[in-house]
Amino acid sequence: MRRSAAISVLVIALFLAPAPGGQEDQRPRPPVRNDRGLLKVSPEYFDLAANTGGDFYFWAPGEFASARLRVPVHHEDVLLAYGTARAKTSFDIPVESGVQEITLFAGMQRKDLAVLVRPDGVVTHDRDPGVDLQFFQNMLIATLKSPPPGVWRLELDGEGLFAVTAHVKASNEGPQLIRFRFVEPGGRPGHEGMFPITRSVRAGESLDCEVSLSGSIKEAELAFVARDGSLLGTTPIVRAGPNEYAGRCTVPKRPFRAIIRGIDANGARVQRVESGLRTPE
């Protein structure tokens, strides 16, 4: 699914208690937490972000008003992960050659630690050239200009609901995931072909699938991931046209997203993920 053709949901959770006056709403207050120290969040808004690929903001009271936040224009999704954790969790963020900018949103109901590590294993600091890191009580928001290619790693430690999203502004030649779909034979005599399946797909069934991708990558592979970003399975795909790939897919038994991945001309890993979460029957 192309992000430009979909509705990207930006969820900003303010978590501010009612107060008599508008300005008083911005007064710093202690975060509302339960007995485990977890920030109170709205499950409905969290699920909305998780199902559509939106960024979820774990604002503590008073943080939004004082934040120097510049909401970026998103480009290509590289990582979308939403789930629940009780300990340290690590996320890989592949960045191909020529990326102009990467934006990362990482939040948790109780964030004990959030560390962004470069491909060379060095921890990223705000004083590094082209790096803007903003640390909040429950979030890390990072913007990196011209990041070195390779696999970046986010280490997130804490407990409760988490949301991690990473997006890149690729080079002009960088790949874009235009569309993923399940297809089946159809058409009238003399005009046969593969057409999108319009019904709901069933968990576990085997179907033909197609990927449309602008730009080129080597060793292209299709994968499915769960809502929390964990791998559900992979499928070999072959080039079926200038910007088309095809393969045979087994529908996951859990809600999933499709990912296209491979390597670029310089050997750096490339990854694109569709924004919408698919739920099989």
Structure, described:
This protein is mainly β and 281 residues long. The chain has helices at residues 43-52, 63-66; strands spanning 11-13, 56-58, 76-85, 89-95, 101-117, 131-135, 139-145, 150-169, 176-186, 193-196, 206-214, 218-225, 231-236, 238-241, 244-250, 257-263, 269-273. The strands form four sheets. Strands 3, 4, 5, 6, 7 and 8 form a six-stranded antiparallel sheet that branches. It has a five-stranded antiparallel sheet with strand order 10-9-11-15-14, with no helix packed on it. A four-stranded antiparallel sheet has the order 13-12-16-17, with no helix packed on it. A hairpin with a 5-residue loop joins β16 and β17. Mean pLDDT is 86; it is low at 1-29.
What's the number of extended β-strand segments?
Answer: 17
Percent helix, as a range, is: under 10%
What string, H for helix and E for strand, traces the elements in order? EHEHEEEEEEEEEEEEEEE
Q: Radius of gyration from the CA trace?
A: 20 Å
End-to-end separation: 20 Å
Percent of sequence in beta strands? over 45%
Biggest sheet: strands, sense, closure?
Answer: 6 strands, antiparallel
Structural class: mainly beta
Mean pLDDT: 86
Global geometry: globular
Would you identify the regions where 5 or more consecutive residues have pLDDT less than 50?
1-29
Number of helices: 2
